[in-house]
Amino acid sequence: MPPGRTVKLIVYEVLEFACLCVPVLVVLERFASLMRRVKFNDVTAYWLVVAASIAYVTTMSLLVWVPLKYFILKSRGYFKEVNWRPVTLAHALLCTLPCFAILIASSKVQLDTGVLYDRFSELPVSLVLFALICMDIIERVRPYHLRGQGHSLDFEIPGPVLTHLEYVSTVSSQVQSNRAANGSALRSEVMSDSPSGRWADTDGISRSSSMAYLYSSHSDLGCLRFFCFRDPRHELFLETFMFWLDTVEMIRVAGVQDIYNSNWVFPIYILSFFSILRVVVTPKSQMLTCLGVVAQDLPFLVLRLCLVNVYGFVTPILYIMKNLLSCLTFVYFRFLTKLKVFSRGSMF
């Protein structure tokens, strides 16, 4: 029986290959059915599109996907040092981009004929997005063990094991102890000088914040301690779906009949694909915030305002406020706080 790490690797690769091929085949088969209806039940057009979809999946798998995965598995150490993810980039270019192009082409075909045959409303669009989310989850959960505690990783480098540890006082610990002794002496002096004998709030003494409970991780819950559970693998699933929620809502707007029958479907899918390219950057990268504003929040804000102006509230106001607040807070904390007017600590 192969080891567990090999079985996990095979399962991951099979799932990623399925997420790559299945959405393309489903969307192209749906487009083939649309072409058969447009061509007045022409079976030849249907099978031509189906054959083209099978040829495309076979070609991209043999010429791009398999060599890329082989190179990544053989040079795993190199891709640990880079700040981007080539697998997700390949999935976005080989699967998501063709599927969006087919959806745009189907809308264009029906606009030219003047008859609405198929809006590609639920199954193909949801399948494309779900495959993209699954690909992102697999790439992010790959370093973790699927059994045991969530803090253990697969790519930990073995090192020397310490068998005996002895506490050695450092300079920083001595400085902290001296500060604590000075602080206790200062508190005793303040309490003695205070007429009530209680603690007096003075400058230079650390104060307890009224919002400290928001950042405290230690609490005595008693019988509710059973609910105290945090696992990075579980949080990874939730964070990934929240990461794609804005893009999913924007693509949902394209499924509205009035918008799907208009030219607004083109900028929606184009801007949605540019927002998807954010997944190429690693989740912990410092570039992700800037890319989120430039590639998603700002274009989505302008597009949603235009759609609301033309079609009414086809998109919730909540997402408009989310895009607006993201842009404003990014500009403020990135640029305005560096000015002298906003960098004074005595103002707030």
From TrEMBL:
<dbReference type="InterPro" id="IPR020394">
    <property type="entry name" value="Uncharacterised_FAM23-like_TM"/>
</dbReference>
<feature type="transmembrane region" description="Helical">
    <location>
        <begin position="317"/>
        <end position="337"/>
    </location>
</feature>
<keyword id="KW-0812">Transmembrane</keyword>
<feature type="transmembrane region" description="Helical">
    <location>
        <begin position="9"/>
        <end position="32"/>
    </location>
</feature>
<keyword id="KW-0472">Membrane</keyword>
<feature type="transmembrane region" description="Helical">
    <location>
        <begin position="262"/>
        <end position="281"/>
    </location>
</feature>
<feature type="transmembrane region" description="Helical">
    <location>
        <begin position="44"/>
        <end position="66"/>
    </location>
</feature>
<protein>
    <recommendedName>
        <fullName>Transmembrane protein 236</fullName>
    </recommendedName>
</protein>
<feature type="transmembrane region" description="Helical">
    <location>
        <begin position="87"/>
        <end position="107"/>
    </location>
</feature>
<keyword id="KW-1133">Transmembrane helix</keyword>
